[in-house]
Amino acid sequence: MVLSANPDWLYLLREFDHVYRRGSAGGSAVIRGHRRRVREALSRIIDNDPEIGPREPHTLPVVAHFGRAIDMAATGPLAALARAVDRVSGQITWEHGYSRIPQHLARQYAYCELLGPQGPVRADCLIIGLVLFAPNTTYPQHSHHEIEESYVSVSGAWSENDVAVYAPGSLILNRSGHEHRITVGGLDPCLLAYAWLGPAERLAAPQMRFSKPARKG
């Protein structure tokens, strides 16, 4: 089945396009360029009407917080995106993405790829997906080689590298190789949308791993 024959997925991608087209870059030329590259890649993909290859839906413990995350987004700036996500929620494959993951984190975190090499919407030049965190989660330090990443906050309060607290609607850019660590507030879950840009071979095999702690002394 192609994208145009599945309205729920088409509308979802249009909502992502809206986020990257209408939001502010806050005066940053670097962020403005990233937003442009994401929406240009996404527009090409939509115009090419790619195949949708449904994957087997899969859930993980943190998905118990998904409903609350969607409810919180209902009154926020990305309510339309959250509604579009909810429409396809029964078709989502939630994953950890790491061959080894701490036991406590396995209960507090999951991500899903909505568009990319693994689908369901097939593309090789862009990945779009979601990350869900339970309350009071610390997502360890990591980076992405040859991948430029942006997070867009859909619901919940979170911080990256203890620099600021980000509210729904915020966009945070991580350049290739940038080390970052995420913490989430203690009362509610956090739902982030994300986009990855990079070489097709890297997006197909991102080799996700946490950074080794720096040696002391």
What does this structure look like?
- The protein is α+β, with helices and mostly antiparallel strands and 217 residues long.
- It has one domain (3-204): Sandwich (Jelly Rolls), CATH 2.60.120.10.
- It is 28% helix and 24% strand.
- It has six helices and ten strands; from the N terminus they run αααααββββββββββα.
- The strands form two sheets. Strands 2-1-3-10-5-8 form a six-stranded mixed beta sheet.
- The protein is globular.
- The termini are far apart.
Distance between the termini: 57 Å
Q: Portion of residues in helices?
A: 25-40%
Total separate domains: 1
CATH hierarchy: architecture:
Sandwich
Report the major sheet.
Answer: 6 strands, mixed
Counting DSSP H or I runs of 4 or more residues, the number of helices is 6
* Average of pLDDT: 93
The proportion of strand residues reads: 15-25%
Q: What is the CATH fold-level name?
A: Jelly Rolls
Low-pLDDT residue intervals, each spanning 5 or more residues: none
CATH class: Mainly Beta
What order do the SSEs take from the amino end to the carboxyl end, as H and E? Answer: HHHHHEEEEEEEEEEH
Computed Rg: 16 Å
The quaternary structure here is: single chain
How many runs of DSSP E, i.e. beta strands?
A: 10
- Counting helices, strands and paired strands, the structural category is alpha+beta
CATH-assigned homologous superfamily: Jelly Rolls
Protein name: Dimethylsulfoniopropionate lyase
Organism: Aurantimonas marianensis
Pfam family, one: DMSP_lyase
Keywords: Lyase
